[in-house]
Specification:
It contains five helices and seven strands. By secondary structure, the protein is an alpha+beta fold. It has two domains: about 90 residues; about 100 residues, Roll (PH-domain like). It has a seven-stranded antiparallel β-sheet with strand order 4-3-2-1-7-6-5, covered by helices on one side. The termini are far apart.
Length: about 210
């Protein structure tokens, strides 16, 4: 009889299922109420997010534009500082300011390390001089070009090199291109010839 009575308590299962469904309904109802209260805030946040996306895109374009301008300035500086057009490659032994030719060259140091340094060289007053910066005092490499010879150097670790040799020392220089090297060699040779023409008698007396 007890077993029969227990078997007839199927309503307890239905009651448990109904309680479970009611709990689920309450849970989701409360969740909906909470999210419904957050709806205005989420809409406001979505609007702000859209504006942030727009601002980010504008900022990205501005940064890309600035980067392009910087690249152009760097390229322009590099071309201005390191490369030469045809007018700069040419030399003039009869220049009004006395400067036959000028421009950047790499000079090999005479120390044990044989380091290369970039200097602003010029040929003027029958001398080969250079400056570390354009406003620095001139450093004389060769005092009298009439006592010098100039020749290209191929057996060296760098390209476009040439050497100016005087009775007391030699100076190894490097140009930025083959065209520049030939221009510098011709400028030195022309300056030597010009110096001989200007004062041949005094030179032979000395």
């Amino acid at each position: 009889q007890i077993n029969v009575l227990q078997a007839k308590k199927k309503f307890e299962i239905l009651d448990a299922m109904l309680s479970f469904m009611h709990a689920q309904y309450t849970f989701f109802q409360q969740g909906y109420s909470l999210l419904h209260e957050l709806d205005p805030y989420m809409k406001k946040l979505a609007t702000e997010l859209d504006q942030l996306v727009i601002d980010s895109a504008v900022e990205k374009r501005e940064m890309e534009h600035k980067h392009a301008l910087i690249q152009q300035r760097v390229t322009s500086f590099y071309l201005q500082d390191f490369s030469y057009d045809d007018s700069k490659v040419e030399f003039n032994v009869d220049a009004p300011n006395g400067v036959v030719m000028e421009g950047y060259l790499f000079k090999r140091a005479s120390n044990a390390f044989k380091t290369w340094n970039r200097r602003w060289f010029s040929i003027q007053n029958s001398q080969l001089v250079y400056q570390k910066k354009l406003k620095d005092v001139l450093t004389v490499v060769v005092e009298d070009l009439r006592l010098c010879t100039v020749k290209p150097c191929e057996d060296i670790e760098r390209r476009f090199c040439f050497e100016v040799v005087s009775p007391t020392k030699s100076c190894m220089l490097q140009a930025d291109s083959e065209k520049l090297r030939q221009a510098w060699i011709q400028a030195v040779q022309a300056s030597i010839a010009s110096a001989y023409r200007e004062s041949p008698d005094s030179y032979y007396i000395e």
